[in-house]
Write a structure and sequence with these properties.
By secondary structure, this protein is an all-alpha fold. 64% of the residues lie in helices and 0% in strands. The longest helix is centred in the C-terminal third of the chain and has 15 residues. The relative contact order is 0.13.
Amino acid sequence: MSFDRIKIGERISRQRNKLGLTQQDVYDKLEISQNHYSRIENGHVGISIEKLIQLSDILNISIDYILTGKIPSDKKSDFEKKYNELSNKQKQYISQQIDSLKKFDLK
């Protein structure tokens, strides 16, 4: 089975941006060079299994999604899935809105 490195890189880049992370944030955590990480996102090189597992954790996405673009079916609620796709700023905003709603009795 072959994987499209360009699409893999695009998915990695898109998720990194969704989370508001820089390339440096990610390659520092992966303990690889800036050049190597950039080449992964640009689809010029592959990534080792070990680093792929780390990257999956860092970006909070499944390895299956990174490699194939398919979102694995799981038992997470629709809200939880959508929430996990938000950037940190968006999550903070949602949290503030929830805190505000808790102050009101909407009965």
